[in-house]
Amino acid sequence: MYNVIEPAFLIDDLPGVGPKTKERLNSIQIFNANDVVFKIPNSYMSHIPVNLNLVEIEETITAQGTVKTEPSVTYMRRGMNRLVFFMEANDIYLKVTFFNQPYLRDKIKVNQTVKVHGKFNKLKQEMSGKKLILGSKEDMEIRYALNKAMHNRTFKNLVSETFKHAQFKYDIPTELREKYHLMPISDALYLLHFPQSFKDVSRARRTLKFYELFMYQVKIMEKRRAERVRDANSIVPYDIDKLKAFIQTLPFELTNDQKTSVNSICRDLLSEYSMHRLLQGDVGSGKTIVAGICVYAAKTARVQSALMVPTEVLANQHFESLSETFSGELNLALLTGSTTKKEKCEILNQLKNGNMDLIIGTHALIEDDVVFKNLGFIITDEQHRFGVNQREKLNEKARHKNVLYMTATPIPRTLSITTFGDMDVSIIKTMPAGRKSIETTWRRSNELSEVMSFIRSEHNRGHSIYVVAPLIEESETLDLITVNEIYELFLREFGSEEVVLVHGKMKNDEKVKAMDTFETLKKRILVSTTVIEVGINVPNATVMVIFNAERFGLSTLHQLRGRVGRSDKQSYCILISDPKTEQAAERMNIMTETTDGFILSERDLEMRGPGDFFGVRQSGLPEFKAADLAEDYKMLEIARDEAIQLFKR
Ligand code: ADP
Ligand code: MG
């Protein structure tokens, strides 16, 4: 990822690196000079001597003192040997032992000042030495994560050789270095390998962080420029009058954010540059409607659209909700793994002859036999769940590469800058009018009877209730109530005519059937372990009960809560949890304090770190050596602004 040295000579060009060493280095992904200098130590220890009188009983520390006796080496069994000498430190006369380091004998001289790092036992006045430090130099000890490929010391020599031979060619632009008080990247890297103090390390890290973030942004800008090619084929010349007339027929007024989003997307459609836009908004904020309107726009130009979603349930739900609003205006169909052969054949025909305006489906859409007459607008929902390859494959089918990515996971700004920095972003922040904010409460499991009576009262008012239960069959641990226990509990309270169970191990058609009884309000209490069905939409539901809520991160809890509050009725989210950690308790508190998905996602990122945020490797998050996306967001924003400036010039 990084190139600062040019020519980036190979490691075997360094003195002393033969085929064996080369192989070992390759095994830890080190191939050339750049890899060496960017192999940043993973820990630093200082050898600042401590006052032995202050050591409690036994501690690993560094002592500084005067050698009092000649070292003597005793050979023990099986190649073991022991070197012993006495030294005086802080008025304590102590015995120092080094195991298997007989070569130290020649270095230790009586009356010399030395530092010994090791385990000090105060009662016995003994020290088991690990490292001997002569004079005042090398106060910092560094360690590399070398995975046993070679000794720390050997690698350090290699780093030293590399710096001797390297010519540093790339750096942060001088004016930025001056503006932000950074050092040349070569100095920063050198200090990280050969620091004199912790201060060196932190100064150098700051420069490296900036370098990483800035270079990454520059890369993104380059990608953006390369992708956004001018191509008359990207133009979708829709009929604005028809579009306006159509929007008038909608049963509601679009929110301002929806209008702005429609405008931006339509502007992209008309533009000769291809669209790469991310549409973000909480569940229920009206993204699907926005996408549908733009599909209608494309249709007026006889351009086809495709909507790809990660799960079949989500595909069904999108199909139903879009059919409801657009059935008279758009010819649309659903294509998933469950589509029958006959239906599929018909759909494929209509896609090929151009009759079909919109196809909604899972990755079934990327199969080779799906051929479009004139695909020009691609929408992917919950896009970070698709691998890059899947996305590209659908994009390849398009004549006009206009892609809209939709996500209901509010992505913290820092992550959206890094992962989606090459896209334009539209955000729907305000919910459609009339929505009441969801009241969230946190209850302990011993308050279950209160919770049940609350549920009963909402049920009596004709509302539907979601109950999320942990997926386990029997109590593997004592802390979790099993899904079956919860199901039984609700059966006893409400009877089997009112309660339906959906769990992750059910077959797909059973699941769909069970969901259906809940969606059509035949049964109004859904006990479920499957929380992934982001698409489910039952506006009649007013209560979301989550058992063992501490199992989930903030983003997931927020997603779950988004199932309710989809009508003008007041809705509630009840978290049942006896958290064991402070962090988990804090999550419960945060949930009761805010319903703003963006605030929650920032907090989630802070608490869990970027690696866990998406939960999937394919998120495409870069791996930084020094920068931390949760911590360094201010620097990230600066780096981004500077990269944009650079590209403007
Ligand atoms: P999302 O895709 O963001 O989850 P949807 O587009 O599915 O949201 O909208 C959720 C619900 O809100 C749908 O029933 C939709 O018809 C309705 N809706 C969308 N926009 C508005 C609006 N501006 N005013 C009232 N209701 C709306
Ligand atoms: Mg949606």
TrEMBL record:
Keyword Isomerase: yes
SUPFAM superfamilies the UniProt entry points to: Nucleic acid-binding proteins (SSF50249), P-loop containing nucleoside triphosphate hydrolases (SSF52540)
Gene Ontology MF annotations: 3'-5' DNA helicase activity; ATP binding; DNA binding; hydrolase activity
One Pfam family named in its UniProt record: RecG_dom3_C
Domain (Helicase ATP-binding): residue spans on this chain: 268-428
EC number: 5.6.2.4
UniProt keyword annotations, A-Z: ATP-binding, DNA damage, DNA recombination, DNA repair, DNA-binding, Helicase, Hydrolase, Isomerase, Nucleotide-binding
Helicase C-terminal domain span: 447-606
Reaction catalysed by this enzyme: ATP + H2O = ADP + phosphate + H(+); Couples ATP hydrolysis with the unwinding of duplex DNA by translocating in the 3'-5' direction
Transmembrane segments: none
DNA repair listed as a keyword: yes
Example of a GO biological process term: DNA repair
Function per UniProt: Plays a critical role in recombination and DNA repair. Helps process Holliday junction intermediates to mature products by catalyzing branch migration. Has replication fork regression activity, unwinds stalled or blocked replication forks to make a HJ that can be resolved. Has a DNA unwinding activity characteristic of a DNA helicase with 3'-5' polarity.
Family: Belongs to the helicase family. RecG subfamily.
Designated name of the protein: ATP-dependent DNA helicase RecG
